[in-house]
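Subgroup meeting minutes
Present: P.N., E.W., G.H.
Scribe: E.W.

1. P.N. recapped why we're keeping a running log of single-chain structure predictions: easier to compare across weeks, and new members can see raw inputs and outputs side by side.
2. G.H. added today's entry (264 aa).
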Amino acid sequence: MTNDAAGASRSVLVTGGGRGIGAATSRLCAARGWAVGVNFARDGTAAERVVTAIREGGGTALALQADVASDAEVVAMFGRIDAELPPLIGLVNNAGVVDLASRVDAMSAARLQRMFAINVFGSFFCAREAIRRMTTRPADGTCGGAGAHAGGAIVNVSSAAAKLGGPGQYVDYAAAKGAIESFTIGLAKELAGEGIRVNAVRPGIIETEIHASGGAPDRVREMAAQLPMHRAGTAEEVAEAIVWLLSDASSYTTGSIVEVTGGR
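Output recorded in log:
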C-alpha cells in the first residue's frame, strides 16, 4: 500500500470502522493520505462522525453500511467502493462481536452461528472481494502483465483470546479468532506471488466499547493490575500496528501475526 500524502489516489476499507480500533484505524489511514471506506453494520451515527472528522481534516472518506456476515451486502458495499472511491489497495478486517460470558455447554446454536458468521465468514467475504480488486494475477490465470491490478495489503484483526482460549467466558470468540489467524497464514501464502500481503494484529486488553457489548464494561479497569504493563492498550496503539502492516514500510512482511498485548 503506497502512502500518498499529496492526495488520496488509493483506498482502504476498514470494516467496523466507526468505533474502537476501527475508528482509530480509519482516522490514522486518512492522516497518512488514503481515502477510507468506513464500514458499519448498524451504528451509522458513529461511522458518520468518523467520516466527518476525516473530511474536516482534509481527507476523503465514505460511510458504507453492510453487515459483513451477509455475502450480498458485502458485494454491494464493494460495488459502492468501485463507484465512489479511488482504487482499493487495502482491507482491514476489523468488524467483530463478542457475547456474554458463557461456558461452552450453555452456548446456543444461534450464538455460535452469529459469532462465526461475523468474525470469520465476514472476513472471508471481504477478503474475497478485495482480492478480486487487488491481485496482480489477471483473469487468464498468469501473474503480472496487461490487465493485472496493483496489489495491496490485507490486515486481519485477531485477539489474544486466540492463544489464551477464553475459558469460562467466550471459547467461541477465541475459536473464531483462532480461525482468523489460520486464515491469515494460509491466505498470505496463497497470495504471496500476486502482489498482496496478508497479516494480522493480535490485540490484548484494549480500551474499547467491545467489553461493554460483551457484558463486561469494567473489564479493563478490573484487569489492569494483572497486566505486565499495568494498563490496557489504546485503540490508537493498535491502529499504528495495523497501518504499518498496510504500508510499504512492511513490504517484506506477510503471514505474520503482530502482538499488541503489552506483554500479556
